Every structure is written in C-alpha cells, then in structure tokens.
Amino acid sequence: MRIRENLKKLDLGEKEIEIYLAILKLKQATITKIAKLAEIKRTSAYHCLENLIKKGLIFKTDKNGRNYYGAEDPKESLNNLLNEKKEIVMSLIPEMKEIYGQSSNIPEIKIYKNQIGLRKMFEDLLLCKEKINRYYLSGFLLEDILGKEFIDDFVIKRIKKGIRSFSLRSFTYKPEREKGEIHSKQLREVKFVPENINIKPYMVIYDDKVVVISTMEEKFGFVIQSKEYADAQKEIFDMIWNNVAI
C-alpha cells in the first residue's frame, strides 16, 4: 500500500506502521488486540506504542483498570508531526549555511546546456541582491535561444523586483523593438562600445557571479561564482561604461 511508503517517509518504522494502521482500524483497543491484528509480538508492540505516543499519533487511556490505545485525529496529528520536522529543518539551516559558507571562498563553476538549462541559469538573475545586472550583449538576440515569451516574462519579473539593467552593447546589437522610452520604463540603461570592439559571448555580472552564454552556434552557458572574479569584472565593466562606451 502506498500509505505505508508515505508513513516511512515520516520516519515511522515498519512495525510502528503496522501498529498504527491496526489502531486506526480498531479505533480503541488493548495491546493484545492491536498486536494480534498487526501480527507483531506483544513485547515489540509495547515499544511501538510508546514511540507512537511520543510522536503524538496515538493516545493511551484507562478503562476499568486496563490500558486502551486509540488514534489521534490523523489530519491533526500527522500535520503536527510534519510541522515538527519542518521546525527541525529550519533550525538546521543557519548552521548548515554557516558550514557551507566556510568554503564559499572557493570559486565554483557550473555548466548549463540546451534551452531548459540556460533558462534555469538565467532565472537566477532575478535573485540578485545588489539589484543591479551588468550586461555585455553581443550581436545575437538572446530570445532566439531562450524564447521571446521567456525573455518578456523575465523582464516583467526583473522590473517588479526593482533590478536595474546596465547594458553594454556592440553596434550590431540594435533590436528595433527597443526604443529609448522603453529602456527607461524597463529600468534599463544602454551604452555602445566602439565599432572595432566585437563582443561575441553574452555576459551578465551580478552579486558574486559572472554568467556567460556562448554564441548561437554553441548554445551553452556557464556561471562562475567567485566574489573576487565578479568584483574584478564589475570594475572592468564600470571603467568601459564611464570612459569608453557612448
């Protein structure tokens, strides 16, 4: 039964599951009847019952000097059990992040292929903490790789999050649909590098990451996560923006 598989995911042992299901069927019963229905030895059943009480799934009551066991409302008790596990996970996150952060000075490189992978890589830009994306745009339209609908939706989400776009472009990249007034509404500033400079890959710099999407022919991308490298690329970008681009 699928119910057994799901109860296992809540850290119930096999014997505990059989005892719990037996109690659900019997409503309230003595350990003798429960153990018999579950086909588990009485001594093992006793330990299972104690564990199920601790987990809040069943209760024990006294009737005429005999102990009876019954199931708590499954909706409430299972929700409580799930919430307890969520609390444990949430309490672990700060410590885990601290341990994970100890190795954050090691540069990380991830490679993405095909449209699905590239879209996933691009969506991370929306998590930008600095609220600034720096773009190098080459002569090909990114929507040819990711799809126009995806790009349009991305721009809407970027605007809602208040993430500004600074775009350095080669002269070959001049899509007609983008006009000056549109750039302003879309929190975008655009400058062009001299005609003798040819930017082939599509690059984005944000936070501690540098994204590179290769040419239309190659259709792959990679992300370098390194604060030092990203900061260096930002310095180069800003120098070109302020002194070379027009």
Report on this model:
With 246 residues, the chain is α+β, with helices and mostly antiparallel strands. The chain folds into two domains: 1-102, Orthogonal Bundle (Arc Repressor Mutant, subunit A), CATH 1.10.10.10; 106-241, Endonuclease Chain A (Endonuclease, Chain A, 2-Layer Sandwich), CATH 3.30.870. Helices cover 49% and strands 22% of the residues. The chain has helices at 2-9, 14-26, 31-38, 42-54, 74-101, 114-123, 143-146, 148-160, 180-185, 227-243, and strands at residues 28-29, 58-63, 66-71, 108-113, 132-137, 164-169, 188-192, 202-206, 209-213, 220-225. The strands form two sheets. A seven-stranded mixed sheet has the order 4-10-9-8-5-6-7. The longest helix is centred in the middle third of the chain and has 28 residues, at 74-101.
What name goes with the CATH superfamily of the largest domain? Endonuclease Chain A
> Helix- and strand-based class?
alpha+beta
- CA radius of gyration is 30 Å
CATH architecture label of the largest domain: 2-Layer Sandwich
Q: What is the average of the pLDDT values?
A: 84
> Beta-strand level of the residues, as a percent range?
15-25%
- What is the CATH C level class of the largest domain, in words? Alpha Beta
* Biggest sheet statistics: 7 strands, mixed
Tell me the CATH topology of the largest domain: Endonuclease, Chain A
What is the rounded distance between the termini? 68 Å
The rough form would be described as rod-shaped
What are the low-pLDDT stretches, counting only 5+ consecutive residues below 50?
Answer: none
Question: Taking strands numbered 1, 2, ... along the chain, how are they ordered across the largest sheet?
Answer: 4-10-9-8-5-6-7
